[in-house]
Design brief:
Structural class: alpha+beta
Strand order of the largest sheet: 1-2-4-5-3
Largest sheet: 5 strands, mixed
Order of helices and strands: HEEEHHEE
CATH superfamily: Nucleoside Triphosphate Pyrophosphohydrolase
Helix content: 10-25%
CATH class: Alpha Beta
Shape: globular
Radius of gyration: 15 Å
Number of domains: 1
CATH topology: Nucleoside Triphosphate Pyrophosphohydrolase
Number of strands: 5
Distance between the termini: 27 Å
Number of helices: 3
CATH architecture: Alpha-Beta Complex
Length: 157
Amino acid sequence: MCAELHVSVVSFAGHVDQGEAIFTAAQRETQEEAGFSLDQLRVVEEFKDILQYSVQNQPKVVHYWLAELIKADTPVILSDEHIRYKWGDIEATKHLSGFDNMLPTWDKAYHLLTSAYVSAGVIIYRVKTEVEFLLIQSSGGSRHWMPPKGMGNLPLI
C-alpha cells in the first residue's frame, strides 16, 4: 500500500498502519477515498493480486482485491485528496489509469468477471449496460489520468 496520491481504482491504495492487517487497511482506504463501506461491497473471493515494484528506489508491495459495488448507483464520496472520478469500461480503465504495471491486474479482474458467472462483482466495478471500473483522479497535481491525445476533455460524472 502507498501514501502517494494517484489515480486509484480500489485500487484504492494507501499506507498500512502499524499493526493493521492489510485487508483492513484496504477497507479503510476504500472508505476514506471513495466513501464505500464494506457493507456496500461484495468482495470477489477468487481474486487477489499483489504488485511489487520500486518507488524512488524503495521497494513497494501493493495488495489488490476485487469488489462489486452492490447497488450500482451508490454515490461516490471523494476524499479531499481527489478531484474527480469516472466509471469506464475495461479499455478506458486501462488507458486512463496511467499505471502500466496495473495492466495485468485489470486484465485478470476483467477476465474473471466475464469468463464465468461470479455472484460478486479493492478495484471497484459496477454493471449497468457493461462492466465499468471506477477511476479517481488525485488533486495533488498527479500526472495520471490524462486524456488521450486528440480526445480533449473526457466527460465526467
